[in-house]
């Protein structure tokens, strides 16, 4: 039996706890220990499932490993790792949370140049990845469907809400779901005349996979928007629309991922609008008129008005 390191033992880093328990660990836990000793920041960057996959073991074994070295679960273990990194090496903590592409001493010009390069790269890569025939068939299905469900969690949920708002304005009966119980209920009510979209940067978000899978089982035409074409989300979709993979050296990686997703959502919106051009024009005009009374008129520019701050594109 593996002896546990006491939870309240002070002064022990995660690495020292792992080293202390290593001689008594079973083979499956040794694999996890080897990953952690080689890459101490791995738990900060990986989910429990991803860490298990990297170590060639199961999520349940990772949980048991955490308890063996003195943590009640993976969340507490990650906090311990983050705390160790923060105490031991401020630069390593910076690299884990901000990314290797940015440095604490960078000038604002250097920061904006890096951001610009990464975001442009993400959009250009997404444009090359997109299969226009697939996107065209998806837009036609959306334009003629009885109902559209859009699923997303966290940052991808914001993207789901954005797509729903745009499509609803041009007459598409759509609903977005960021909560799995409501999403599963809606997914179960879909039919062969429905369309369902799951948005997940990694394609491995369990809740999104569950909702899209339920919609597929109900007969809906399903679409995955993800950068991972071999992910579990892509496996349950009829069509997968690819986005650019985030740069592993840029954190948080969802900065560029959001622009990739928005590129695809904009494309879908515009193609659906083309499919229903006459009706779309009427609905956009009607909705613009409905809210026009809530917009203040633009006042004339005066001589003493302060100029708007403009950031010039960085140059070498």
UniProtKB/TrEMBL annotation:
Residues 293-304 have a biased composition (Basic residues). Transmembrane segments: none annotated. Residues 138-278 form the SIS domain. The keyword Transferase does not apply. Residues 288-316 are annotated as: Disordered. It comes from the Bacteria. PROSITE patterns: HTH_RPIR, SIS. Keywords: DNA-binding, Transcription, Transcription regulation. Residues 12-88 form the HTH rpiR-type domain. InterPro entries: Homeodomain-like_sf, HTH_RpiR, RpiR-like, RpiR-like_SIS, SIS_dom, SIS_dom_sf, WH-like_DNA-bd_sf. Residues 305-316 have a biased composition (Basic and acidic residues). PANTHER family: GLUCOKINASE, HTH-TYPE TRANSCRIPTIONAL REGULATOR HEXR-RELATED. This is MurR/RpiR family transcriptional regulator.
